[in-house]
Amino acid sequence: AKDSGRGNRQFYQPGMNVRATDVLHQERLLREAIANNAFVLHYQPQISLADGSLQGFEALVRWRHPERGLVGPDEFITFSESRGLITPIGRWVMHEACRQLKAWQDEGLAMVPVAVNLSALEFRQRDVAGEIAAVLHATGLAPRFLEIELTESVLMHHTGQVLETLNAIKTLGVGVTIDDFGTGYSSLAYLKRYPIDKLKIDRSFVMDTPQSADDVAIVTAIIQMGHSLQLKTVAEGVETANQKDLLHRLGCDLVQGFLVSAPMDAQAAHRWLSP
Ligand code: C2E
Ligand code: CA
Ligand code: CA
Ligand code: CA
């Protein structure tokens, strides 16, 4: 896959010669972080290409690491999965995103949905639909203000159970986005089998546009297919005005990326929401 920035920066990978004491040390720090809620969510805006308006935020988790400062998810999500520690982190993320959005709503701010990432392992291991229902109930956030981002790998396995869970999420009124679209070993059949609302075009297809004719063709095809299936399309990792202009011309609905804004803390995100 072209997206080499993703998933290759974990602390420890098979075959890497790391000392077991380091693993145990990091695991202990992670357990402490979970006990102390030493995580923070950053929010990255998604804007409409039609009128530039804010249409949503993606919530991205960071770890306030005692020795290394703010650590990004690529460096601890896979590690926490391997140590059996992803569930409490994922639960915290879901709850915190919903709590924050409801707090903004209670302040009288203009509301947009927040998107929360769930890894394939989390989706398999947890009663995601039941948990979402409980978090929405506990925080009081309306379901239309929550979206779930899933990668294609979720959809490949355990078809019956995945369909049941997605239908339950849909019934709640929560949106479902396929993240990193086009990078998985996907069968397009799942796009009609599952209740999906949005396709998020992976950054690896966006980053070499408009120069790469191949990538322009791929992005064009994804947007057209998405629209024929009544799905919204979002492009991630948009860094240049040329990329944005191309996406606009191609009819893409939303963009997200450094051109608009890097992920930011809650205080900065607050400023994007006018009363
Ligand atoms: P993702 O879902 O594909 O999220 C987009 C990543 O791209 C984020 O990295 C974001 O900061 C980065 N990004 C945004 N705009 C640009 C851009 O214009 N250019 C470039 N080069 N990068 C951009 P981040 O925050 O480090 O997150 C990495 C991954 O970690 C996410 O990829 C997501 O798969 C995962 N992740 C983040 N938060 C969570 C979470 O709460 N739970 C789970 N399970 N996974 C999470
Ligand atoms: Ca995502
Ligand atoms: Ca993504
Ligand atoms: Ca991506």
UniProtKB/TrEMBL annotation:
<protein>
    <submittedName>
        <fullName>GGDEF domain-containing protein</fullName>
    </submittedName>
</protein>
<feature type="domain" description="EAL">
    <location>
        <begin position="23"/>
        <end position="275"/>
    </location>
</feature>
